[in-house]
Structure prediction request, 132 residues.
Amino acid sequence: MSPLRKLRRRRGWSLQKVADQVKELGGSADVGSLSRIERCKLTAAPALAEKICRVFGGELTELQILYPERFAEEQAEAGADETSQAGTERRRQRGRRATDLDPEEALQVKAKAEALASGIATLVRHVPLPLR
Prediction:
């Protein structure tokens, strides 16, 4: 959980209330943007991060808004508490890994990767670079 979401929930504030207060300070933020910032799907502009900090009276730093993944210690703790079944399901959703392949499949994947790399190398050699 991002520090922004954690503090907003602790105060019992809605995203709309935060958006309104940011607008009162001369900023521009809507509920959707704030939600994406909280979920680390969007990086706030530095000016917006400053306004959000002012809304929360300095309890939150601009760095916590701009780089929330550096301050999300709860995510690591939550991962440790996960049941093995939930972890297995998450790995299944991410797809197969190279270690999951049998040796024959691994060789096929390797051959395809080498062919792709060779094709890219050929393209790079034959595509003229623009002169500056």
